[in-house]
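Possible regression after last week's pipeline update?

I re-ran a chain I had predicted before the update to compare outputs. Posting the input and the new output here so someone can diff against the archived version. Not blocking, just want to make sure nothing changed silently.
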Amino acid sequence: MGQCQSEDEEVELSQIQALYTAFMQECPSGALHLHEFRKIFGIPSSSETECLYMERIFKSFDKNRDNVIDFMEFVAAVNLVLRGKLEDRLKWSFKVYDRDENGKLDRSEVKHIIKIIYKLRENNADMTPNEVCDRIFELVDSNKDGQITLAEFMEGAQKDDWIMEQLKLDVNATGWFKENWQKKL
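New output (post-update):
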């Protein structure tokens, strides 16, 4: 299961200055705040579930935990989204799933994200979020202890296309970036 990226999806070093200019136009303070982040992805403040999900994603990019995404964190996020290796994207997904940040996923954490993904995708799949969660645990929790470690998450996601589709997060960040930022570069 390889990852195919075209050259035009990469953020080149020559684009950093233009990216900085665009970032500063959107965020004159030099910092992207959570409310701006939600607005960028079109998440209305009245949608509590989606807001919580976007907050998890925001926090995953806020490396220094100062509740803002500065330019360097933004560049790192763009790099991950546009050209990050599959392994790096899966580690990031695990971090978003891991709400209590204990390094393990329990059923409630997985079910929580699956429900949000279903709502965001307006998914009318054959399986309910509970059934998806049960199947993920059946296939990924190799030691059957009711928790999924990062190693189990990585291994499970890479051994089965269905699991990969369920575990990797798709917030259409690549499409959003191309639509909203690359035209400014």
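Follow-up from reviewer: compared with the archived run. Residues 1-9 have pLDDT under 50 and may be disordered. Marking as no regression found.
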